[in-house]
Amino acid sequence: MKAFDYLNYPYASQRMTTVANRGMVATSQPLAAQAGLDILKQGGNAIDAAIATAAALTVVEPTSNGIGSDAFALVWTKGKLYGLNGSGPSPKSISIQKVKKKGHRKMPAYGWIPVTVPGAPGAWAELSDKFGVLPFKEILKPAIDYAEIGYPISPTLGKFWKKAYKKYKEVLDGDEFKHWFDTFAPNGKVPEIGEVWQSKGHANTLKSIGQTKAKSFYEGEIANQISAFSAKHGGFLTKEDLASYQPEWVNPISVNYRGYDVWEIPPNGQGLVALMALNILKGFSFTEKEAADTYHKQMEAMKLAFTDGQTYITEEKDMKHSVNKLLNDTYAEERRKLIRNEAITPEPGQPLKGGTVYLATADKEGNMVSFIQSNYMGFGSGLVVPNTGIALQNRGHNFSLNPSHDNALKGGKRTYHTIIPGFLTKNGNPVGPFGVMGGFMQPQGHVQVLMNTIDFHLNPQAALDAPRWQWIEGKMIAVESTFPSHIAESLVRKGHEIQVQLEKGAFGRGQMIWKDNETGTLYGGTESRTDGTIASY
Fold first, then answer.
1. 17-40 pLDDT tens trace
2. Does residue 95 lie within any of the structural domains?
3. CB-CB neighbours of 170 under 10 Å
4. What's the domain count of the chain?
5. What is the C-alpha separation between 508 and 419, in angstroms, rounded?
6. Could you say which of 208, 209, 233, 313 has the lowest number of CB atoms within 10 Å?
């Protein structure tokens, strides 16, 4: 892809697209991007670089992910796209009845109840086994060094760290949460911007994962520590749950949007929401980006797709409506007919019967990786396994305690998952990886940056810099402070409830790398809403 508009779009002037041809790593933290680039320069491929970057991000951006995270990946190599689902299931012994017996009417956000099996370490090892070229323990060395020696806190990281600390001081009550404060706020103080932070426990855990290809995490000493911590505080997670975990290779799903194939991981991820929205939107023609009608149709399509997603998406084998039914063109047409001149309050249709980190890597051999990893809601459950640096995720928070809901909680089940990597191809050739982190903003960000690229020909940096919006619920839409006010006013007249939100972090943080298949040149864009950077050569 190279038909970019570099000069005639206002957001292009903020930061220019990075251009290189030997290797590129784009992510939300400069030190992590450099870790991936170092691996490329040592002879590693894009898969090795992705693993190194992901591991480093657990250290240098712990406000968004950790060793106790889940992960998903889309990997382009040797002319084929592969999908890896690195999300873990709920503990086998958990149930709706047991959670309700503990006094909960809905799934809590903190503590042991929402903790699911962490999939990230297993995903790293699986990617390395299948596609890596360097020894796994070598790939984790940059992350280990950052944890052992320490690194200075960057501005956005410092802001979210302090925000999480204030929140956790209010909501975390119990001895099980003590280790989070010991690890991330030693002596009752979070690290300030520019201050050096280190975690010996984190370093030792990464060393063990590297030396055993993650087996110690699921079957060995680390598994013992996790299960003992769970048992001590009445958690459902056991060593058996950890030992039985295996990342799953999956077939990516796609829709064709204006000649481009847009690829996502199948459910339990919410990438299906982005594809459903694009399937609706492809029936319209868009000639102008900065027009109220363009935004109106985008917002209405997203509302319809998201309402379906939140109703029907769960682990794929438990879905009442298949992916094919939800992506059926006839069904998309029926949903499209609901989009009129006025904003609607969306309801799910009836298909025809029958705090996350993202990174993108590319190398000179043509390998490309779209990788995403997250604890959920910032630091996650508020639980850190003592002396390990492992902050456990709280993905189970998305389960429903309504037995009739598609995403109802049950033991050994993977929940509706917010983190989604994306990939773009055209005519069977790779265009490249893209992603926008940020909870339920993610499919909305995917649609917006893809339309900026495909419909409006924006270069990667401009596509990311452009003001964003986010559907919240009903007719409520949040927009960034840089969103054009005259268009916001027009949208209000169409019945949308527009709220200007000053917090940039609410609108996701994205990265993308596009490849010109004729020249091999890579074009990278990184997020202006965080400490993001692109390392390349």
1. 899 999 999 999 999 999 999 999
2. yes
3. 8
4. 1
5. 11
6. 233
Residues forming beta bridges with residue 434, ordered by sequence position:
422, 512
Say how far apart CA 466 and CA 474 lie, in whole Å: 24
pLDDT at residue 65 tops 60: yes
Amino acid at site 537: Y
Separation CA 47–CA 137 (nearest Å):
14
Whole-structure pTM value:
0.94
Q: Specify the amino acid at residue 268.
A: N
533 domain-assigned: no
**Backbone φ/ψ region at 345: left (φ over 0), alpha (ψ -120 to 50), beta:** beta
CA dist., res. 485 & res. 100, Å (int) = 46
CB 54 within 8 A of CB 71: yes
List Cα–Cα distances, 70 to 313, 371, 386, 439, in angstroms: 18, 11, 20, 13
Distance CA 131, CA 264 (A): 20
> Is residue 535 domain-resident?
no
Both tokens assigned to 322: 């298949």
How many angstroms separate the CA atoms of 98 and 119, rounded?
24
- pLDDT score of 368 more than 90: yes
Distances (CA, A) of 49 to 32, 91, 289: 10, 32, 35
DSSP annotation of 400: B
Inside any domain, residue 393: yes
Residue 211 banded pLDDT, cuts 50, 70, 90:
very high
Q: Which helix (H) or strand (E) holds 55?
A: helix 46-60
Residue 13's pLDDT is what?
Answer: 45
In whole angstroms, give the CA distance from residue 521 to residue 518. Answer: 8
Our CA dihedral for 491, 493, 497, 500, rounded to 10 degrees, sits at 50
Residue 334 burial (10 A CB sphere; 0-12, 13-18, 19+): middle
State the DSSP H helix or E strand holding residue 202, giving kind and residue range, or none if neither: helix 200-212
**pLDDT tens by residue, 245-292:** 999 999 999 999 999 999 999 999 999 999 999 999 999 999 999 999
Mean pLDDT across 64-76: 97
Query: How do beta strands 497-501 and 476-480 pair?
Result: parallel
What DSSP line would sit under 87-115, residue for residue? PPPPPTT--HHHHHHTT-SS--SSSSTT-
Please state, in angstroms and rounded to a whole number, the distance separating the CA atoms of residues 374 and 62.
9
Which residues are identified as catalytic? 356
Mean pLDDT of the chain: 94
pLDDT tens digits, one per residue of 482-507: 999 999 999 999 999 999 998 777 89
Residue with tokens 């047409």: 333
Token digits for 438? 């940020």
Is the predicted pLDDT of residue 50 greater than 60, yes or no?
Answer: yes
CA pseudo-torsion sign 192, 512, 395, 221: negative
Q: With H, G, I as helix, E, B as strand and everything else as coil, classify residue 261.
A: strand
Strands (E), 244-304: 248-250, 253-257, 260-264
Distance CA 449, CA 360 (A): 15
